[in-house]
Every structure is written in C-alpha cells, then in structure tokens.
C-alpha cells in the first residue's frame, strides 16, 4: 500500500477593498491566504499595475513602500499587519487619483515561486451631507398671530 500525500496549493482566500469611500476617510485593504505547503516569499500590493507596498518576511528590511500617485500608505499603523496568513494595510490622504484597481499578490518561495492574486476596485468620492431645515413652526406662528417671530 502506498501513502498518497496531497500537496496543498497556494491560494488567496479573501481580498477586501472597499468599493466606494469618502475622500476624508482612512481605508483598510486586506487579503488573507493559505500558503498550503509553500513558504511565504512576499506579499505585494499594486494600484493599477504599479507596486506601492511589499512585505518580504525573509528580507532584512521586511516592509518596503514605493511612490505611486494617489496612494499614501499609513506607516506604523496599528492596523498594518502582515504575516504567513494575512496582510492588512491602511491608506490615508486620499484624493481622486486614489481611485483604481488594487491587487494583492502572494508569492511562495523557492523552488517553485508560485503566485496568486486577487483584485478589487475602489472609487474615491466626496460624500455630501445635505441638511434640510423646516420653517413650519415659524410660519404657523405668523399665520396665527400676524406677528413675525423669525
């Protein structure tokens, strides 16, 4: 009888990118993954195909940030957390150029260097709150007494 070992594949299990956000907000992007039998080489975040963040746990400098127009990673955030199972980062100072396609790419280590990724689209807008005031009570007082209380 032969023992059969099933190799578990590298897979992205979830990506979270908010669809519509207010320009004044700080947003969290996250992805979770199952490394299977692979060791994590890196997690990279891209906006519109341009890399802006890299987590490489086996490198001396495990976190790297790259300049991309419209993307500002909140560094030293308590929410920013990456490990063998998930990676979560925050973006702040949003503007209209922050809108776009965000991709989380997971890379396994040697010898295979397997890759997987997930994509989410985010639109940055200015959400306006309109306050509607009623003047009914002042109007009723004027009609009843003929005196303007406004």
From TrEMBL:
A Pfam entry, by short name: V-set
Record-linked InterPro entries: Ig-like_dom (IPR007110), Ig-like_dom_sf (IPR036179), Ig-like_fold (IPR013783), Ig_sub (IPR003599), Ig_V-set (IPR013106)
Domain of life the protein comes from: Eukaryota
SUPFAM superfamilies documented for this protein: Immunoglobulin
PANTHER family tied to this protein: BEAT PROTEIN, BEATEN PATH VA, ISOFORM A-RELATED
Protein name: Ig-like domain-containing protein
Organism expressing this protein natively: Anopheles stephensi
